[in-house]
Amino acid sequence: MKLFGWLRKEKRDSALDNWRNDWAAAIEHGEDGAALRDRLTTLATAEPDVEMELEMLDALDQLRAVRQTVSTGGLPRVDTQHRVIAAETCHFTAPASIATDHAQSTGRLLLTASRAVFVGAGRTSVSAWHQVNEIVRIERDVLLVRADRTPAAHFRFNSYGDAVVCMFLARHLRTARRTRL
């Protein structure tokens, strides 16, 4: 690659990085993705590989739908007969893996009003909301962090949509649990 081609690539990457930063801000502030979609269309003329960013826009749409449900006083209800949550209502479930597990065993994450439950690879991992101080999303990973800043759990999802919706609902469920205590 020629020097000038490399410089142009750096400039394009910077534009995509700026777009991703704006997308992350839209996730946190509940903004509409229309302007981001328009910007991505423009960026796609110079950058042919925007598949990940299209997935990120889908995640924003999924989050908007869940936020609307929660804003009207409801929580999503997922029909599951999984014995690990017994009679609790499941508000979210998605395929995931435990990112800190070197084998990256896959399974399912389920969120209830009282806890996050990972089931997979012959084991169950539970994080009660009262033990979680902060919920952080990094790309497709969601971390549940204790008050002492140690991770209670670190989940890796297959899609941005699952990670973004999980983060939002986990934050909502944790806050709701703390106000009830």
Structural class: alpha+beta
Give the DSSP E fraction (strand runs of 2 or more residues).
15-25%
Whole-number count of domains: 2
CATH topology title of the largest domain: PH-domain like
The Cα radius of gyration reads 18 Å
Quaternary state of this entry equals single chain
Major sheet details? 7 strands, antiparallel
Overall mean pLDDT stands at 88
- Termini gap: 61 Å
Highest-level CATH class of the largest domain:
Mainly Beta
Shape: globular
CATH homologous superfamily name of the largest domain? Pleckstrin-homology domain (PH domain)/Phosphotyrosine-binding domain (PTB)
Return the CATH architecture of the largest domain.
Roll
- Percent of residues in helices: 40-55%
Question: Which spans of ≥5 residues are poorly predicted at pLDDT below 50?
Answer: 1-10
**N to C succession of SSEs:** HHHEEEEEEEH
Number of strands: 7
> Order of strands in the sheet with the most strands?
4-3-2-1-7-6-5
How many alpha or pi helices? 4
